Amino acid sequence: xxxxxISIDYTIDFVADEGKLTAGAPAQAISQAIYDATQQAFDxxxxxxxxxxxxxxxxxxxxxxxxFPPHNIKGTRGRHLYGPLADFYAQHQEHARVCWLDKRHxxxxxxxxxxxxxxxxxxxxxxxxxxxTDICVLHTAxxxxxxxxxxxxxxxxxxxxxxxxxxxxxxHAEQVLGxxxx
Length: 182
What we know:
The chain has 7 helices and 6 strands, in the order E-H-H-H-E-H-E-H-E-H-E-H-E. By secondary structure, the protein is an alpha/beta fold. Keywords: Hydrolase.
């Protein structure tokens, strides 16, 4: 079994108190867990993908512009990774098994070459971490399921705006997508 850890949107705009679309305390509480999971995956030899929202300022045509305040705008500090994960990336960004992937939609697969990258590396299992459990993490899990990947979600390394939304997404992933919730 070959795995890839996909770290989704763990950026200042989604996590920090001053973030433009922050999940706040729940997202901040997973900082060490998401770092530990990423370091362990790297030590195992897994492929590490940082899938990060990329939006253009004043893009009125993007569907999210009508749903959420502007966030993760190109060239802003809001797109920087949050906490110790930023240090991990700074230390390992040049490594062949570490990839930064700009994404435009909720899912890390939508409109990106993620599926191609994973298949080139013979990845059959994706391990998901990051935010928001019920939006970008869940949509990535759904696309992974539809593409035939096994799915693992590290419950202590994902967070959402509310505990109710977080739990719904974990239950949905487990019961409908067959995800292994660890």
